[in-house]
Specification:
The chain has 183 residues and is an alpha+beta fold. The protein has a domain of 98 residues: Alpha-Beta Plaits (2-Layer Sandwich), CATH 3.30.70. 36% of the residues lie in helices and 16% in strands. The chain is built from four helices and five strands; from the N terminus they run H-H-E-E-H-E-E-H-E. Strands 1, 2, 3, 4 and 5 form a five-stranded antiparallel β-sheet that branches. A hairpin with a 2-residue loop joins strand 1 and strand 2. The chain is elongated, with a radius of gyration of 36 Å. 19% of the residues are buried.
Length: 183
């Protein structure tokens, strides 16, 4: 009988503690008042610097960190090109075929006979026949085409010519496809 009373007392204590805990969780803590400034504390610094002193924003930092390089402006005809093709086209414009070949080799893009492997996406399927005709005229070697995509080995000096065409949506260095074919 004694153990039963003891268990009831413990159960009631636990219930009371749980109820008190839940009540404490429901009521938020009252906001703490902000203490007034004491006499021994220094006053807040004046936001205006003295006339002979520069504002903190104009002062040089203790350590000098180089500024990030300014981004290069992208020409209108370069907006259709991916990064490696932009670099190859710029090298071709500034330093000729030799510079463009160095950039082509550095980019790791697939190349053949001083031509870069490019995937051209036309604006529509209807634009592909005319695009293929112009590609052949420029000395490009057409590898394949599918719907509005044309894969081609494009002469380096023809990159700007085709990126400026209205029928071309985008141009990118062609990604190699290495699939295992099952017999």
């Amino acid at each position: 009988m004694k153990t039963r009373k003891l268990s009831l007392v413990l159960a009631m204590m636990l219930m009371g503690a749980c109820a008190a805990r839940q009540e404490a969780l429901k009521t938020p803590d009252p906001p703490k008042p902000v203490p007034d400034q004491k006499a021994d504390q220094k006053p807040a610094p004046d936001p205006k610097p003295a006339p002979d002193q520069k504002p903190a924003s104009d002062q040089k930092p203790l350590t000098s960190v180089p500024a990030p390089p300014a981004p290069q402006q992208v020409a209108e005809n370069e907006k259709k090109l991916d990064g490696p093709l932009i670099e190859i086209a710029r090298a071709n414009r500034s330093g000729g075929q030799a510079n463009a070949m160095k950039q082509l080799t550095a980019s790791g893009a697939d190349q053949k006979n001083q031509k870069v492997s490019v995937e051209i996406i036309a604006t529509s399927k209807e634009a592909v026949p005319d695009l293929k005709k112009r590609l052949k005229e420029s000395g490009a070697e057409i590898v394949s085409d599918l719907e509005n995509h044309v894969w081609v080995y494009l002469p380096l000096n023809a990159i700007d010519q085709f990126s400026g065409m209205n029928s071309v949506w985008s141009m990118a260095v062609a990604r190699p496809t290495t699939t295992i074919r099952q017999p």
